[in-house]
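RECORD TYPE: inverse folding
INPUT: structure tokens
STRUCTURE:
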């Protein structure tokens, strides 16, 4: 294949796309939760100290969910945008891009939902029910983390593996490559932040993760 110096997409496009999708996802998450108090402990029996702790950690965890949806959407949308620059933007092309993004995010959410259903079967006394936005965010984090772990490999072979022909041309272009790795890094950080906020920090502060909090076991210093 003849390699010309011409990038597939203008240099600013991948970064601008990532920025717009992240801003949209975070804004959506803010709007979804704006009308409600941070209710991680809705319906759970928590002492007031744990309730305060969970309100704080849940704010971080929700932020992680929102940026993960943005980064996953970017990874799915970028090849379509690149193809649009190569072959021209068409309505069917745009519709295919949007429906692919929706399908990937929905499939990830469905996997998260099923995992919770299985967990509820295995550990019926724990709390696995959460609001839909958290199921969507959790699905995006898990699938995104898998994508990210797959992408992190010296060289750009994995980008080509994931994106196919368009990926092959995208990696010739430093701005696109860079932004793909930035999205992958965001997904890894989101996974770590959510794990820390929902599981490690409550345990470290002598509280319980929300999934375990319904157990009503005595814990922490009574305050
Ligand atoms: Zn407590």
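DESIGNED SEQUENCE:
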């Amino acid at each position: 294949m003849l390699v010309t110096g011409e990038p597939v997409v203008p240099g600013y496009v991948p970064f601008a796309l990532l920025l717009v999708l992240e801003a949209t996802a975070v804004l959506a998450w803010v709007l979804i939760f704006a009308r409600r108090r941070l209710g991680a402990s809705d319906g759970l029996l928590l002492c007031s100290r744990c309730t305060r702790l969970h309100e704080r950690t849940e704010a971080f965890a929700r932020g992680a969910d929102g940026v993960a949806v943005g980064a996953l959407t970017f990874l799915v949308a970028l090849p379509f945008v690149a193809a649009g620059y190569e072959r021209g933007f068409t309505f069917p092309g745009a519709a295919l891009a949007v429906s692919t993004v929706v399908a990937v995010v929905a499939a990830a959410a469905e996997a998260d939902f099923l995992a919770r259903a299985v967990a509820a079967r295995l550990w019926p006394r724990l709390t696995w029910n959460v609001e839909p936005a958290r199921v969507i965010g959790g699905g995006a984090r898990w699938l995104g983390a898998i994508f990210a772990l797959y992408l992190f490999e010296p060289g750009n072979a994995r980008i080509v593996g994931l994106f196919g022909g368009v990926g092959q041309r995208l990696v010739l272009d430093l701005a696109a490559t860079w932004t793909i790795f930035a999205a992958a890094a965001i997904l890894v950080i989101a996974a770590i932040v959510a794990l820390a906020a929902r599981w490690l920090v409550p345990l470290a502060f002598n509280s319980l993760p929300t999934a375990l909090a319904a157990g009503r076991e005595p814990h922490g210093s009574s305050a």
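NOTES: The CA atoms of residues 52 and 201 lie 13 Å apart.
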